[in-house]
Design a protein that fits this description.
Helix 11 packs parallel to helix 15. This protein folds into four domains: about 100 residues, RuvA domain 2-like (Arc Repressor Mutant, subunit A), CATH 1.10.10; about 190 residues, Tex N-terminal region-like (Orthogonal Bundle), CATH 1.10.3500.10; about 160 residues, Nucleotidyltransferase, domain 5, CATH 3.30.420; about 100 residues, Nucleic acid-binding proteins (OB fold (Dihydrolipoamide Acetyltransferase, E2P)), CATH 2.40.50. By secondary structure, it is of the alpha+beta class. The N and C termini lie far apart (about 85 Å). It is built from 31 helices and 17 strands. Strand 12 and strand 13 form a beta hairpin.
Amino acid sequence: MSEKIFSKKIALQLGVTERQVDATISLLDEGATIPFISRYRKEMTGSLDEVQVANVRDEIERLRALEKRREAIIESIESQGKLTPELMILLRGAETLSKLEDIYLPYKPKRRTKATIAREKGLEPLAILLFEQKQINVDVEANNYLSKEFDVKTADEALAGARDIIAEWVNENAEAREKIRQLFKEQATIKSKVFKSKEIEGEKFKDYFDWEERLMSCPSHRMLAMRRGENEDVLSISIAPPDDAALILLYNQFIRSKNASSEQVRLAVEDSYNRMMQVSIESEMRMFTKDLADEKAIQVFAENLRELLLASPLGQKAILAIDPGFRTGCKVVALDKQGKLLEDTVIYPHEKNKIFESKQKIVTLCVKYNLEAIAIGNGTAGRETETFVRGIENLPNEISVIMVNESGASIYSASDVAREEFPDKDITVRGAVSIGRRLADPLAELVKIDAKSIGVGQYQHDVDQYEIKKKLDEVVESCVNKVGVEVNTASKQLLTYVSGLGPQLARNIIEYRNENGPFKSRKELMKVPRMGDKAYEQAAGFLRVLNSKNPLDKSAVHPESYSIVEKMAADLNCTIPQLMAEKELRKQIVLQKYLTDKIGLPTLNDILNELDKPGRDPRKSFEVFSFDNTIREMKDLQIGMRLPGIVTNVTNFGAFVDIGVHQDGLVHISQLSNTFIDDPNKVVKVQQQVMVSVTEVDVQRKRIALSMKDNAIVNANSPVASTKKVTNKNGKALSTETDFASQLAALKDKFK
């Protein structure tokens, strides 16, 4: 099948033009990344976005794989001398892998089967005779095939062998298999039962000890939960259509008379289904529904990860970060505006005789390094540590106290990345550093952690590991390139995800930077070893050089378009900095004057937007969140309470919300909205601030049920919002651009 036909199919399926598909495939084949194609090749693709480009990529990969398998099958059948024009037409017309494999099944080399043995005994002519279902005396006909040589002693043995052959024909009939496959999809149920004596061991699977539902209605989380129970030898799972439905369907196809021959065919059909086809199709359905469940679970994980990676950054602030703890104390680190570790210590604020000393250490560090915010991990002792910090009388009012989701910080602290960065520090210090940096820039810090360890998915260890890694890497790449990367401060891990780079070039950039000092321009990137024209083309637009003399190096304008901006400035008799600074000048630009064969209005509009706000961060502005100060433990909760919370995870069955009691509560999908919804992501996102009502508390099982019905989602304009712009410890509004040095001068004098 030609690539042109592929393009036509993909265009029809995705609702775009063949020209768009052809251009996208061509760019992908040349090694262009999805972010680069969707951002800098809009004229070629007709402005397809990242999702559409990815869909084109996935479809062309599927079709090419199907075609590769088709050619292998044709070659196999041809080598057997069995390829007819009619069979070739069937093979060429198969549009799915399952249909292709059904057609191939009779010709597929197989191990020795019952049917094979029957053929070796010379019983195929008898099978053909019976399959014709004419009015014959089957016993008389069967006696003609008795043979000492082939050990066929009785008519019953001959008939049994003939039925084995017919059973194989039925099983290998492409039309019959497709009918049974559709029957399973439309009517099959999935049942799970607990194995005897496994009730206590498998308590976590209690909901599925005796469970049954329609197969294709089974949601992703239940499918994966039951399969996990099966893998742990707690549950047994079966998938089947209603009793006798499959046999009736097969009888209708293969039984054409009512006589002794037909009865033999009926027995063969029954044997074929029970012994072969049912097992085969059930296995196929298991794989099919597992793939669907994986796809949905991976998609949920990807959406959650995207929200987490694009969470609002506090920005370049000097931060005091605290990793809370009771017995071992709280690890405290001071970080400068670039996230560099300045000092670390340990405090014991939860021991009565060390409270004053702990307060003094916090205040001293804040004054010494002009710190602008305090980040506190939300794990064990988090709320208690927050209360302690907010209660420090001498803490400068301008310093914000912010709880930070520390999920994954322990993974980072024990990683090779952390050991390489802080070889002389223990994992507790590294964890505290990660908490502080996550507040400043969640994206830059989270890329250092394996995405599956962040904990914002469902059953991530049960899904296809190759597919989930591929999808999550794609999400990280998308987010990194959406935000852009400052080449002189970025870590190796962050640079790795920039379009066109990868681990080796990222390493080379870091080494070049260490040896030669900060990059002075984008053009200097070409001096990095192994940075070829293609890699530079893919990466340059997403890399920022903030200290460059060329202001365009600080923007998302691609170097290939610099000449256009230069011409715009020349036409207006001004400099590029003036053009970027003065809105009235930009209003005079007539974009049509700069159209070329390669540059169209989409790119020109992007350029104009960048000139307006060069290098703008697409992430939302930072807002501080506060839990209810009167609620700190589960025992403080009462039914009916309305509390502020932060969404920590979204799944198929609902959303988990942190309300500040060290145990997330669940808002079941039925409690997310007053109206029916089929996807929680339509209502809430990870990191979203919400108001919830407590509907159930089970302290013993550590379960909290919450509801969002009749509650508005909290945002900056909500009258019930417990959020505010960055504030000081007393709640006073504070600009994130405040110069803290002068405001802390009085405190320094006090300490003298």
